[in-house]
Design brief:
The chain is an all-alpha fold. It contains 10 helices and no strands. The chain is globular, with a radius of gyration of 23 Å.
């Protein structure tokens, strides 16, 4: 065999070897991701939603908002025994992640499903409606919900929950939801 042909053969085998490992790694990664998502769906609500390093937040922490929203949607679909407030919170977080992913129509749909109809979650609905108003580019509605929130209850630290988020939505009204949410003012006591 001449050196010219042996060089071509070596390149061919090198290419095949590389393709084999790339394909193997890709399949392994896909299986790992699906196993990870499957295991997330079996978590208890607190671990899935409230643990800042687990559940859907794993994806959000990596700025993979669309995947976070989809995992939440699957979790909602697969867990029929969730309490009403848990469904409300999960729908909100799903909507919020769709908004972070600039999928505003899906976000609004999920956010509308996060309106508390039980009356258990005090001062929740104005925050949800303010978020929807921002996504619908309704400044008047957004400011009205902000005013409603400003008269609401404070938490144990004397802060009105999420008022600073809504202030950020107003201050950054012509920006994306992600930008507006991330550039909110600090919490202030009432």
């Amino acid at each position: 065999m001449n050196t010219n042909n042996s060089g071509k053969v070596m390149k061919y085998f090198s290419l095949l070897y590389s393709l084999f490992w790339i394909t193997t790694f890709s399949i392994y990664s896909q299986n790992l991701n699906s196993l990870s998502a499957d295991s997330l769906i079996t978590l208890e609500f607190e671990a899935f939603d409230q643990d800042m390093n687990n559940g859907w937040r794993k994806y959000q922490n990596e700025n993979n908002y669309l995947e976070a929203a989809k995992v939440i949607d699957i979790y909602l679909d697969k867990n029929d025994d969730l309490l009403e407030y848990q469904k409300v919170v999960l729908n909100f977080h799903s909507g919020q992640n769709y908004a972070f992913a600039d999928q505003y129509e899906l976000a609004i749909s999920r956010l509308k499903s996060s309106i508390d109809t039980t009356g258990v979650m005090l001062d929740w609905n104005p925050y949800v409606k303010a978020t929807i108003a921002f996504l619908e580019h309704d400044l008047i509605g957004l400011k009205a919900m902000r005013d409603t929130m400003a008269t609401g209850s404070t938490n144990q630290n004397g802060i009105i929950p999420n008022l600073n988020v809504v202030d950020g939505l107003i201050a950054n009204f012509d920006s994306s939801y992600t930008w507006a949410y991330r550039h909110r003012p600090k919490n202030e006591k009432k």
